[in-house]
Amino acid sequence: MYEMRRPMLACTDETKISAFLSTAMTGYLGVADGLEPYVVPLNFVWWNGAVYVHGAEEGRKMEVLKRNARVCFTVSEHFGTMVHPVPAKTDTGYMSVMLFGTAEIVTDLDEATEAMQQLLNKYVPGYFFAPLSKHHVETYRSSMGSRTVVLKITPHTITAKEKPLNEEKVFYAGRKVTDDIVKEK
């Protein structure tokens, strides 16, 4: 594994990382399709120490994963841009997490159903009156006739970086460098 270039930005707080993964809305699944990288944005859920996603049983993502199950899953949130009178010191408040691991199709119907329920709980909390049924997960087909599969990404390595947002430096529409130069004098 590579050393982080700016270790002072590393986040090693597992509780904070888990909370971030539990609330972030979009993750990016990176796979290696031969010599060509392929990255797909996905809804996901962080549950029981793994990332779960779902999708069609067919398609490029699934074909690549059949050949190479090693993946990188990245989640990042931009909290704001922080200004500075020196252009090169303009910065970003953010948090990002990268998980390196393997992806596999979940074959256990109970686990697949619970993972799908966790996705529903995250993205549409309280919308449905009853829990998702195993029968629905097992028999549902898309409008194109595809079966839905649940993928489990088991991380072998997790790295995280963060740059806290300095509220006094946050850019807003109408803010000018002259405002900040006056404040610093």
Task: Write out key terms for the chains shown.
single chain; 185 residues; alpha+beta; Pnp Oxidase, Chain A; seven-stranded antiparallel sheet; elongated
What does this structure look like?
- The longest helix is centred in the middle third of the chain and has 15 residues, at 109-123.
- This protein has a seven-stranded antiparallel β-sheet with strand order 2-1-5-6-7-4-3.
- The protein has one domain (7-184): Electron Transport, Fmn-binding Protein, Chain A (Pnp Oxidase, Chain A), CATH 2.30.110.10.
- The chain has helices at 14-23, 60-67, 109-123, 134-139, 177-184; strands at residues 27-33, 36-42, 45-47, 50-56, 70-82, 91-105, 148-163.
- The chain is elongated and about 65 Å long.
- 25% of the residues lie in helices and 37% in strands.
- It contains five helices and seven strands; from the N terminus they run αββββαββααβα.
- It has 185 residues and is α+β, with helices and mostly antiparallel strands.
**Widest beta sheet: strand line-up:** 2-1-5-6-7-4-3
The residue fraction in helices comes out at: 25-40%
Largest sheet: 7 strands, antiparallel
Indicate the mean pLDDT: 93
CATH A-level architecture = Roll
**DSSP summary: helix tally:** 5
Order of helices and strands: HEEEEHEEHHEH
| SS elements, strand count | 7
Query: What structural class is derived from the secondary structure elements?
Result: alpha+beta
Q: What is the end-to-end distance? A: 46 Å
Model regions low in confidence, pLDDT < 50 over at least 5 residues: none
Here the CATH topology equals Pnp Oxidase, Chain A
